[in-house]
Design brief:
One of its GO terms (molecular function) is 3-hydroxyacyl-CoA dehydratase activity. With 315 residues, the chain is of the alpha+beta class. It has one domain: Hotdog Thioesterase (Thiol Ester Dehydrase, Chain A), CATH 3.10.129.10. 13% of the residues lie in helices and 32% in strands. It binds 3R-hydroxydecanoyl-coenzyme A. 3R-hydroxydecanoyl-coenzyme A binds next to strand 4, strand 6, strand 7 and strand 10.
Length: 315
């Protein structure tokens, strides 16, 4: 962030944690599903074998297109215009310095290709890290018609330069979710069982943003520079989409409904146009993975995906 003009932040933990988000309702259809799939690179490298056409096109007489599990990561963005954090009293920060830190998702049933959804959002965590504040939002999404829970997203947002609000020692830290849900991932020392290389396009972030995350960090060169990057960066959830697509292709034989839960920590920004190499280590029904930026030989994302038990025999 050297030399950047950071606006002062002001965080009142009591006010932030007492905030109640209004319930939000939205609908999506097959156009949204297909647009998302293209946004995370589906039908790019494999345009020739056509294995991902099912995410954008009715194939084999199917009356609906298939939905990638990470499509559910868009749902929290439907609660309000952006991340929803702008509306939280007691949370004043410079939005240019916001980065996506982690994402955890649970998928309770195959995602329909069109649906009306109701979101319930709570603040699941708030942590003073000194140089940064971390805030965690948990969004549970229900099918409006039946009331069934469809998926849950926990989004960890890293607010650079907004820490140091604690008046206590140790610094303020609050979390209200089971500790086993999100954890540190250690990457095995052995060679990965699978490696999948994919290319993001220079226009990838401009395409991905049409799915609903219009943060100018991904499209406006001036904002990106003010945030400390040489040019606009890729959405973290776009990189996560590439990683989970790689796992579905290499390990799930293309069965996108095999995914039960997903965790990823964003370690490094990705520039649109860079090559993403996902390395995978199956461990029972869990697949540990990391996605590297080939051009810079550095890991940008690491995490795990838990698959449904029927996948265990093929791992
Ligand atoms: C509702 C929807 C909400 C979602 C909104 C998303 C909107 C999007 O438009 C925004 C984006 O997509 S941004 C693009 C994707 N994200 C990135 O590129 C970030 C990449 N990561 C980084 O730059 C650094 O890891 C960085 C900067 C994150 C951290 O690096 P450092 O400052 O060097 O941190 P470090 O000193 O190592 O650690 C400090 C404390 O923070 C914890 N931590 C570190 N990385 C974290 C991460 N990625 N996620 C969560 N926590 C993280 C560390 O554990 C440490 O805490 P402690 O001292 O207690 O161990």
């Amino acid at each position: 962030m050297g030399g950047s003009d950071l606006t002062l932040s002001l965080i009142d933990p009591k006010l932030v944690l007492s905030h109640k988000f209004p319930e939000a309702e939205f609908s999506y259809d097959e156009r949204d599903v297909a647009m998302y799939a293209l946004g995370i690179g589906a039908c790019g490298s494999d345009a020739v074998d056509g294995k991902e056409l099912k995410y954008v096109h009715h194939i084999d007489g199917q009356s609906y297109i298939k939905v990638l599990p990470t499509f559910a990561a868009l749902f929290p963005f439907k609660t309000s215009k952006g991340t929803g954090l702008d509306d939280v009293p007691g949370l004043e920060f410079d939005p240019r310095f916001l980065l996506h830190g982690q994402q955890y998702m649970e998928i309770y049933m195959p995602l329909p290709s069109n649906c009306c959804i109701e979101n319930k959002v709570v603040i699941a965590g708030l942590h003073d890290k000194g140089k940064a504040t971390i805030i965690e939002l948990e969004t549970t999404s229900y099918i409006k018609e039946s009331g069934e829970a469809l998926c849950m997203n926990r989004s960890t947002v890293y607010l650079r330069g907004a820490g140091g609000f604690s008046k206590s020692s140790p610094p303020f830290s609050y979390a209200n979710y089971p500790v086993n849900q999100v954890s540190h991932v250690s990457i095995p020392k052995c060679n990965p069982a699978f490696v999948y290389e994919d290319h993001s396009q220079p226009s990838q972030a401009l395409l991905y943003r049409l799915s609903g995350d219009y943060n100018p960090l991904h499209s406006d060169p001036m904002i990106a520079q003010a945030a400390g990057f040489s040019r606009p960066i890729l959405h973290g959830l776009c990189t996560l989409g590439y990683a989970v697509r790689a796992i579905i292709k290499c390990i799930c034989s293309g069965d996108e409904t095999a995914v039960k839960s997903i965790f990823g920590r964003f370690l490094l920004h990705v520039y649109p146009g860079e090559t993403l190499v996902t390395e995978m280590w199956p461990q029972g029904t869990k697949v540990v993975y990391q996605t590297k930026v080939k051009e810079r030989s550095r890991a940008a994302l690491s995490g795990y995906v838990v698959l449904k038990p029927y996948m265990a025999s093929s791992l």
